[in-house]
Amino acid sequence: MSEETRKEGKPAPATGIRHFCRSCCYTANGLREACKESAFRQELLLGVVLVPLSWLLHFPPMVAVFLDCMWLFLLVTELLNTAIEAIVDLASPGYHELAKRSKDLASSAVGIAIAANVFAWGAAVVCFFF
After folding, report:
1. In which domain, by residue range, is 103 found?
2. Residue in 46, 45, 70 with CA at minimum distance from that of residue 59
3. Tally of domains within the chain
4. From the candidates 4, 43, 78, 85, which is the catalytic residue?
């Protein structure tokens, strides 16, 4: 990497364990930022309830794992939604129809992830308890 790029505040490229450590720091920073969002905090709280419940209800292990993965899918979708909203706000601080469209589409992805969780939990409960 050129000296000019380093002067701009970008870290020098890393490899091996240094790259891994930097990646962990970036992940922690992202999660810290995500926790500032009320929707992300609510979905984390939902997981505090649903993950143990998936095992306490004695679903078959693969069903419990699937339900837990569905919750993780919701978190990933919320993180991507938040990232899209941040970059749209940076690129278009004022109102623009395309900015609104982008944010609405990202929000719809979260809505679909929530619906998928509701459907998966509903199907699991009906299949194994009724």
Report:
1. 39-129
2. 70
3. 1
4. 78
In whole angstroms, give the CA distance from residue 49 to residue 47: 5
46 contacts 86 by C-beta, under 8 angstroms: no
Residue 22 lies in a domain: no
Q: Is residue 31 part of a domain?
A: no
CATH of the domain at 113: 1.10.287.3610
In a domain, 24, yes or no: no
Q: Is residue 68 part of a domain?
A: yes
**Residue 78 annotated among the catalytic residues of the structure:** yes
pLDDT tens digit sequence for 39-72: 999 999 999 999 999 999 999 999 999 999 999 9
Question: What is the pTM for the complete model shown?
Answer: 0.87
Task: Give me the DSSP letters along 12-68.
Answer: PP--HHHHHHHHHHHHHHHHHHHTTSHHHHHHHHHHHHHHHHHHHTT--HHHHHHHH
**Unique residue bearing structure tokens 């809505």:** 111
